[in-house]
Amino acid sequence: MADLDECPGVNSFRSILSRTALGASAGLLAGFTALAVAELVAGLFRPAAGPVTVVGGAVIDRTPAAVKDFAIRTFGENDKVVLQLGILVVLALIAAGLGVFALRHRRAGASGILLFGLVGAAAALSRPDAEGVVDALPSLVGAGAGAVLLCFLAGKATATAVSFGTGGGGWDRRGFLVLAGAGAVGATSAGLLGRYLTGRQGEGAVASRNALVLPAPSSPAPPVPRGAQLKVAGVTSFTTPNKDFYRVDTALVVPKVDAGTWRLRIHGTGVSRARTFTLEDLLARPLIERDVTLTCVSNEVGGPYAGNARWLGVRLADLLAECGVKPPSKGGAADQLVARSVDGMTLGSPVEDVMDGRDAMLAVGMNGEPLPFDHGFPVRMLVPGLYGYVSACKWIEDIELTTFDAYDPYWVKRKWARRAPIKTQSRIDTPKPFARPAAGTVTLAGVAWAQRRGITRVQIRVDDGPWQDADLAVQNTVDTWRQWTYRWQATPGGHNLTVRATDATGQVQTEQRTRTVPDGASGWHSVFVTVT
After folding, report:
1. For residue 173, what are the CA distances in angstroms to 102, 164, 180?
2. pTM above threshold 0.90
């Protein structure tokens, strides 16, 4: 029998495999180099202009609302990590393909890397917070470095693959390994240096937050009343710790804004005296402290995207009045307040709601400390009773008074409603779905909310039985959620537990189940348990 090493077909197959493997390796290394060099350039100039960040932002902006809703539902607060990993996987596959293609068409393969650099540059320049041509540099320089490396590696890989396939060896094989090793070391060094520089750029913001001492409020919130927090295992805490407070936004990289350089401009239609405020200006004013429950419009029935905190800030209505703004009910020309964040996000709030006497504020503190970066440091806006996408602008830097007819903010352009008061909702926190409690007395507990109205009744239904009143915790304010509990005499078998709430206007939470788009989910929350 002939030796397999002497079969032409076997040698040809080995040659193809070796060429493909070396080409793919060359492409992956070139792609890695492009991203690493881009990271370095972004660290030198502007971290937010990194290619993965800007391309990810462009993908988020162009993703249909239903798909975004699915991502939040499925991945929760990890949706951005999943997106970034997805981008990296796609880029790796394309880079590997370009590497194989470059073995036969070296310049065309390198041009593919350059093409993706152009895509990254275009994405950077299209971002709402773009600062000019400098934002295109990371993608372009990184792609250039990756393209040059791919050209050299493809040349070495071609000869090396031939030597592998024939059993020979020599200078080209060593040259490929040396060049690949040098490229890997250089790219890794560039990436690490870029990360270091990016971290350095945020040091000033971190130092400014650490140095910030919040003044005492002129109008402090009263202590949370005894009985507002039930002593029931598994029920959500009345006050949500900062580390556990939900975060839903489009920022792939959390902005780190230096408190010393932060500014807020108020201008637009109906503003007779445009003003620009510093953080010191705001802290020198009378501050209010309030307990307010925030809710994300992406919160499904029974979902986790609601949280209650004690906020410290400046009354927004007072600032607007000083600028000459009047609500429409008093003859004001503007009916929409557009808030802009440092990353270009825009949210639109009804001027009437902001100035109707509720505790709308520019918040500087959260649960007794300066705002965390994840939640908008140094200043964020909040308006009790409105879903976050029309009221809770984080990292705010601009307020423009306009009209709903004249301007559609970010989410409205994506088919969400212009006006979005929070709907009455209730949730079963314990027992959890598919729990297996023992027969006998089982304590059900959860929370209900109807900001600006308050909760006056919560009811439980077991299977298709009658509605039974739950016991309510003491209400803090109409702007906070309210805990409830119900002692159920559980019998063995499977049971469906359902909750509904009634607000202070007498409106019973609707049974009609709707999704989050366009103005928030509705329906009754239920869990299935098996009693043993």
Report:
1. 17, 8, 11
2. no
